[in-house]
Amino acid sequence: MSVDDRLSALLSRGLVRTRPAADMLAPDTLLGDGGSVLPLDHARLLSLTNGLDAYGGYFRLFGLGPWSVRDMRRWNAGHGWRAAWGGRADGWWFFGETAWGDQYAYARGDDPFAADATVYRLDACRLEPEAVAEDFAEFLAGELARNAAAPRDDATVAARERFGEIDPNQQLAYVPSLLLGGEDDLANVVTLGAREAMAAAGEAYRAWSRTAVAN
Residue 163 sits in a domain of what CATH number? Predict the structure, then answer.
């Protein structure tokens, strides 16, 4: 089943919102900072829609440039939110996320043309990776499609009931952070700009790490 078919299946069920196609003829379209190359299936999706979002904005795939859901080049810039993680975000190319800040990513390798196509989800609190699909096509038909229809996380369902649809450039965050003793209660959840939320999460992780080492 092609990426075109998988996207059509999502659209026919009303599960995703698309964008105008990206300009895939630009000479550096497939290349990210550091020479990262998108798998062909992923590039094909962007030629159909420049990113997308699902479940009222609670799941997003980024695109290229200012007309995308979010520009993945800017999102992966080393001087942005990644700097707050003290190197923990290094070695990853992030191309999507949940509203909680969990990141979907490819592992970066030394040879961009022999890259691992495995899709990982890195949790928002520690950026600990978990493989969720063997490649982008499987990710689209599995992880994304399942969550677009019915998220497996009850907290996401409850958050949508409380906040309604969410702007794909915002994230949900616990204040204070769960790592720093915050309570897992929706009453403590706020909406923040995605970059601000990820930077705050990185600072919370580093504070938690220092405490863990001290103990």
Answer: 3.40.1580.10
